[in-house]
Each structure stands twice: as structure tokens, then as C-alpha cells.
Write the C-alpha cells for this entry.
Amino acid sequence: NAGVTQTPKFQVLKTGQSMTLQCAQDMNHNSMYWYRQDPGMGLRLIYYSASEGTTDKGEVPNGYNVSRLNKREFSLRLESAAPSQTSVYFCASRAYRNGGYTFGSGTRLTVV
Amino acid sequence: GQQLNQSPQSMFIQEGEDVSMNCTSSSIFNTWLWYKQDPGEGPVLLIALYKAGELTSNGRLTAQFGTTRKDSFLNISASIPSDVGIYFCAGENNAGNMLTFGGGTRLMVKP
């Protein structure tokens, strides 16, 4: 099993460009999450999807949109990238409440 | 939002030594999780704690859920070079829909 797969692994954007970060899990998990990690800091929740068909804002949702395409896939979109969005983005999933979170290996995004 | 204070921020120890790190919160959590992150990778779950006072071990790792539900600690015994990495605590809120992370403890082990 691949677990949680994120694409791309690296991306450089110019300010104002848009892009979508992709995430897919093959563990039949119900809930999926997007986090960002800035240097020297812990992860902060951007958006989450408790189940297929639902999405909710996390701690730092401004400048992002998400789509829970189906049970497997949860994408994160930056409509107009800003330098403040330079970060490492992690997708995570879990099967049920109180279950452990499984993280992908991250997408390193640089906005210049 | 909720704040998780994790300490120490970094540790440089000799192989074979024991390590202790902890997290404190201004709010109560229902679940405490401890993760390890290697360079270029996502966090990997080490130990999950679900009840106040719970003490759980995973090999050389031991973690406890504080009785006040506002703190947790992680101990690593007899450290080895592959323990190098960043360790994060994380607390889950009552609704079970949000994980708050500490700032991490960077562990370096000298052979």
C-alpha cells in the first residue's frame, strides 16, 4: 500500500499564479486533512474533510480552497499564490475519530 | 487558537543517554499524540494517548497523558543514532476534528 500520496513533491510559483496540490490515500480512510509547516514550527491545519462530501476550515484557511473529489482524493488549491504561502504542505488521512493520522511526504512550495 | 508549548526546542545528547521532552497546553485535550519527523518526510505516529493518566510504551519510547489533560511527556531510553529527528506532540480537541501541534523538539545524537 502506498498510504498517502502527494503530488507534486516540489513546486516554484510566481506571485499571482494558481496551482492545485493533489492528495490521494488508498487506505479507505474517511477523513482527510491539509496542513502547512513553516520553518521551525509545528503543522497548522488549513482545511479538513471529515467525510466524503464535506469540507471545513481549519486554523489557517485564508488564501486556499479545497475539494474532496471522492473518498480517496482531497485537493488543495491556491488561486493567487503569495510569498507568505511558501511552505511545506502535508496531506493526512485517518479512518475514524481517535484513529491515528497518516501523513504524506509533503509538497515543498516556494512562491517568488 | 489553542497553544501547545513544547520543550526543549532542541537537544544534543550522547548515544546511550535517556531523553525527555514535554508539552503543555492552555486548554484541555482529549487525545495526545507523539510524532517523529525525518528530513523531507511527513510525521510518523509514535504513540497515541486517549485517557488522562495513561502511560504507554512503544519499545524504548514511553509517553504519558497528564492527569490535568493539559500536558504530556515523551521519554526515549538508551538513545541511538537513528533517533535523530524532530519530535512533535499534538493534541486533539473535544470535537475530534482538529489536531494542534507543538513547535517540535529537534533531537541530535552523538555516536
Chain B touches chain A at residues 1, 4, 6, 31, 33, 40-45, 48, 50, 88, 90, 96-104 (CB under 8 Å).
